[in-house]
Amino acid sequence: MSEISSEQIKEYVLRLADDAVVQGHRLSEWCSHGPFLEEDLALTNVALDFIGRARMFYAYAAKLADDGSTEDSFAYTRDCREFTNLLIHELPRGDFAFTCVRQYLVDEYSLRFMEELCNSEDPTLAAIAAKAIKESRYHLRRSRDWMLRLGDGTAESNRRMQEALNELWGYTHELFEADRFELSLANAGVAVDPSLLRNEWLTAVSTTCEEATLSLPTENWSVRGGREGIHTEHLGHLLSDLQFLQRAYPGLEW
Amino acid sequence: MATPTKLISAIPDEEYQRRLRRANSPRPDLWLKLDAVTDPEIPVVSIWDLGVLQDVEISDEDIVVTITPTYSGCPAMESIEQDIIKCLSTSGLKIRVRSRLAPAWSTSWISDDARQALKTYGIAPPSQAGEALCCPRCGSTELRTISEFGSTACKALFQCLSCHEPFDHFKPF
């Protein structure tokens, strides 16, 4: 990995950090709005795991940047275009079905992604992944359960799950796309080539959908842009909430 | 007698190394002092027993305490950090707390004493291989899961079907 600079690793780490912080924020929005108390706790606990993951990535990026950046400055003072998260994470939380389906699709992806990242030649990335795997395994157990319960539930729950799945499907393709930058890092043994995860992911998702009496969407559109900083209109609103305090009172500490 | 070449360890190697660091430390008093620092959510278990406390290194001007996070987003870590600094503040040296991610924390590092303490406190300890999860109050194995997540990230919520007590289970991790 001699030809890879720490600036490049930082860019890559920020992508993963942004994915995690945005996903975590969407989950955290359920706090006190969950359908029942235990589910409220579960959603916010999963949110905490993602935010914790984001913190580890941001802290590492700050160390690599070595220019006074901190985990907070990355999360709170960059604008939309500087965020490089995949679009699926930023879509509004929707109803409970939408949140469940997104979480399931993301968990199936995250688990495989972290299993691969564990083999990274970058020891910090490998260490973060080793922690994240354990959490993702647990998240997946729960989100898969909800797929089955609500997919194979009532006519109403099935309809909502199917709608969510159809709506999300076009955003799943981006999960498996790697630009040249990521591929060069993957070739150097630092990053994961996500295109290699697709088959296994699709098999797992197909099996779950079948069991949940949901049909795999036949939608043939896909959306892309997150890694280039081109986002849906939703990210700006999310950031206005996430970053409000630091924007209004720069440098404020608890 | 020939030295055996194959070692079968009854405890995870990283846990063995951790215990060794404490046993061989030139300053056992510092480790002993830190036994007073507990997890704020589970005050009956010290950070040593929990496996969070990894190392205590001392030089002429400072003490470096290494800890490892349990769950990545665990909010207790910051309060543990402050407690460590407070606990060693009388040493007159600068205290630095360092966080280390690898090897990833595992519930298999939790000591037997701590497992017992958890049980007495009303939390079912993480189940070990071949051991059924049971109610910390009456020991029954007739249980139902209430929620995969409990009051903190490390716990799940169960209810005993025999004595009806709801209880937290420290998830094996």
Report on this model:
The complex is a heterodimer of chains A (254) and B (173). Chain A is mostly helical and 254 residues long. Chain A has a single domain (6-248), classed as Ferritin, core subunit, four-helix bundle (Ferritin, Up-down Bundle), CATH 1.20.1260. Chain A has ten helices and no strands. The longest helix of chain A is centred in the first third of the chain and has 29 residues, at 37-65. Chain A is globular. The mean pLDDT of chain A is 96. The longest helix of chain B has 12 residues, at 76-87. Chain B has 173 residues and is an alpha/beta fold. Chain B is built from five helices and nine strands. Chain B folds into two domains: 13-108, 2-Layer Sandwich (GMP Synthetase, Chain A, domain 3), CATH 3.30.300; 122-170, no CATH class. The mean pLDDT of chain B is 89.
At a glance:
With 254 residues, chain A is mostly helical. Chain A has ten helices and no strands. The longest helix of chain A is centred in the first third of the chain and has 29 residues, at 37-65.
Summary tags:
heterodimer; A: 254 residues; mainly alpha; Ferritin; 10 helices; 0% strand; B: 173 residues; alpha/beta; GMP Synthetase, Chain A, domain 3; 4-stranded mixed sheet; 3-stranded mixed sheet; 5 helices; globular
How are the elements arranged and paired?
The complex is a heterodimer of chains A (254) and B (173).
Chain A (H helix, E strand, L loop, with lengths): L5 H23 L8 H29 L5 H6 L19 H22 L5 H29 L3 H18 L7 H8 L10 H14 L22 H9 L1 H5 L6
Chain B lengths: L12 H11 L4 H7 L3 E2 L2 E5 H4 L2 E6 L3 E6 L8 H12 L6 E6 L12 H10 L1 E2 L18 E5 L7 E6 L5 E5 L3
Parallel strand pairs in B: 4-5, 6-9
Antiparallel strand pairs in B: 1-2, 3-4, 7-8, 8-9
